[in-house]
Amino acid sequence: MDQRLNMQQLEPNAYKAMYGLAKYLGATGLNATHQNLINVRASQLNGCAFCIDMHTREARAHGETEQRLYLLNAWRETTLFTIEEQAILAMTEEVTFISKHVSAATYQQAVAALGEQYLAQVIMAIVTINAWNRISIATNLPLSA
Question: According to the lineage, what is the superkingdom (predicted)?
Answer without folding.
Answer: Bacteria
